[in-house]
Design brief:
The protein is of the alpha/beta class. The protein has two domains: 12-261, 2-enoyl-CoA Hydratase, Chain A, domain 1; 284-438 and 496-518, 2-enoyl-CoA Hydratase, Chain A, domain 1 (Alpha-Beta Complex). The protein is built from 21 helices and 19 strands. The chain has helices at 12-27, 32-40, 46-53, 124-131, 149-153, 165-171, 186-193, 212-219, 225-229, 231-237, 248-261, 300-307, 352-367, 385-389, 392-404, 420-424, 448-455, 457-462, 466-477, 483-488, 501-518, and strands at 60-61, 67-71, 77-82, 85-92, 95-102, 136-140, 176-180, 183-184, 197-201, 206-207, 243-245, 314-315, 324-331, 334-341, 372-378, 410-419, 434-437, 442-444, 494-495. It starts with 11 loop residues before the first helix and ends in a 12-residue tail after the last helix.
Length: 530
């Protein structure tokens, strides 16, 4: 037992001794047994996580003395249980970032009742990010509040008294990234979703509104936490969390890569990095990447790799809404957001999931001054009964609405198909509205094949050979679908040789940077959901 009675006035040595004792108690976290339990579950402690994420020796802790002291009858300090939250500032890639997370070794990371929160759904850490206009990284590993606290307070707390106001305000100002590293429910789960980028660990982290005990009590369903909120549900199916990683270290690498594309805040430009990949690189492989047969799929991700700076791509939500690709990449060192239709899934048609995914990504880029590039091969919205039941038309028109409100410069490059209202979601009328196409490009309200059957229905039905009549009309109209006819009418701004794609896009991204620099400032609150 330690004897740390209040030091006499003026005894600096005793005061410093107590200060060091309290700091040492904080570093013990929940104690050796709790730390070993965390390690045996394959998880790092919150302090180890901060060290793994940040540049070496860059962590400056905020509020490190917060906790609960244990005193004897003479009010002499015996021990301190630290607050179950650790936060402060670090550097990541040499840039200042605020970081904080629950300490699961202390009461499972549950909410710490004090005069002021340290962080997590408001508190000092989030205030630091907001007032100093710094990025924030949340390391989420806690279940938030607990009904056990009712007994201490002797009353319940009205929802919203401790709300997400600071979390919401940060979304329109500074990049926010969250890693779900354990089981997250309640407030911590909500905060993880209120992020520009989020990642979780396959097999060892889960997220849900309420866990299995609540589900069983309210619905009578017996389900384990992985089935309820593991990555297969939260990332792949629901898209609640953007990305998944196999290890915590991989998750931290994804966060570092994400932040490398982001400015410190909306008052700054995205960082430009040195590039040794020649701007004039023209890949011969681009000539044959689109198949001769119009219905045959091709690899849009391979196309992106051929035109962006080598090894610069960072895909967001690769396992969700897979008919659209959303990716950050660089062109001559300058960040750009790529929205590419994926003909290998639904032929590139937009469904409800890919629509929501595209909206979130466009808003991310618009918020942080990252120009957008649309690589288009979209036959339209997904059709059929299932598509209607999933409100694909509603979600698709939300994409059109979001695209119409983009203020960041965009470039539209039609690789193959660009049809209907889904095609509208690839254009930006608020800028130059610069549309390019490859010679393989085609567009319109409907493809000729399906459109002829609808527009000439009576004429086809009245023919002696309806099938032959339909082919005849298609052949008559097909020459007018040539992209060169559209360029001749200046209804598309230019058609380029596929090999010219990289130099053309590098030039346009550089121009976009100049325009954004003249119009720098907040873009409004980031709407993380449509």
């Amino acid at each position: 037992m330690n004897d740390h009675s209040p030091p006499p006035a003026g005894s600096m040595a005793d005061r410093l001794e107590e200060l060091e004792f309290r700091r040492a108690e904080a570093r013990k976290m929940g104690g050796e047994t709790s730390i070993e339990r965390q390690h045996s579950a394959g998880r790092l402690t919150v302090r180890e996580r901060i060290d793994a994420l940040a540049d070496a020796d860059s962590f400056t802790e905020l509020g490190g003395l917060a906790g609960t002291g244990s005193y004897d009858a003479q009010e002499r300090l015996q021990s301190v249980t630290p607050a179950p939250y650790v936060g402060g500032t670090v550097t990541i890639g040499g840039r200042k970032v605020v970081v904080g997370g629950e300490d699961f070794t202390v009461r499972g990371g549950t909410t710490f009742s004090a005069t002021r929160r340290k962080g997590g759904q408001g508190g000092l850490v989030e205030d630091f990010a907001y007032h100093y206009r710094l990025p924030l990284v949340n390391l989420v590993d806690g279940a938030g509040g607990t009904v056990g606290s009712i007994e201490k307070r002797r009353h319940t707390v009205f929802p919203g008294v401790h709300g997400f106001e600071r979390s919401v305000s940060l979304l329109g100002q500074s990049p926010v990234a969250s890693a779900v590293l354990g089981t997250a429910a309640g407030g911590p789960a909500g905060r993880a979703i209120l992020s520009h980028f989020s990642v979780m660990i396959r097999g060892s982290s889960q997220i849900f509104a309420a866990g299995p005990p609540v589900v069983k009590r309210s619905l009578g369903q017996q389900i384990d936490k992985e089935e309820l909120g593991g990555a297969k549900v939260a990332v792949d199916k629901a898209g609640t969390i953007h990305n998944a990683a196999d290890t915590e270290e991989e998750a931290f690498d994804q966060i570092r890569r994400f932040l490398s594309f982001m400015p410190q805040n909306v008052w700054e430009m995205p960082p430009v990095t040195a590039c040794d990949d020649p701007v004039e690189r023209c890949e011969e492989a681009l000539l044959n990447i689109v198949p001769e047969r119009r219905t045959q799929a091709f690899d849009m991700k391979k196309l992106i790799r051929l035109i962006a700076d080598r090894d610069s791509e960072f895909e967001i939500q690769p396992t969700h809404g897979k008919s659209v690709i959303t990716m950050l990449a660089r062109f001559n060192g300058r960040p750009a957001g790529i929205v590419g239709n994926n003909p290998m899934v639904y032929g590139g048609a937009m469904d409800d999931k890919s629509a929501r995914k595209q909206i979130r990504f466009m808003q991310l880029c618009d918020t942080f001054h990252i120009p957008l590039i649309f690589l288009v091969d979209v036959p339209g919205f997904m059709v059929g009964l299932r598509a209607e039941e999933n409100a694909t038309l509603l979600e698709g028109m939300r994409v059109v609405h979001a695209a119409a409100n983009i203020s960041v410069p965009t470039t539209t490059l039609v690789i193959r198909k660009c049809y209907g209202m889904a095609g509208m979601a690839t254009c930006n009328k608020n800028g130059v509205d610069y549309k390019l196409a490859w010679p393989t490009g085609e567009w319109g309200s409907l493809p000729i094949e399906g459109g002829v059957a609808a527009a000439f229905r009576r004429e086809i039905a009245a023919a002696d050979d309806p099938a032959a009549k339909e082919r005849e009309i298609e052949a008559r109209l097909r020459p007018f679908a040539s992209p060169f006819r559209t360029a001749e009418a200046f209804a598309v701004e230019d058609i380029i040789d596929p090999r010219e794609t990289r130099p053309v896009l590098c030039s346009l991204v550089e121009l976009a940077e100049l325009r954004i620099a003249h119009d720098l400032g907040p873009r409004g609150v980031f709407n993380f959901l449509p």
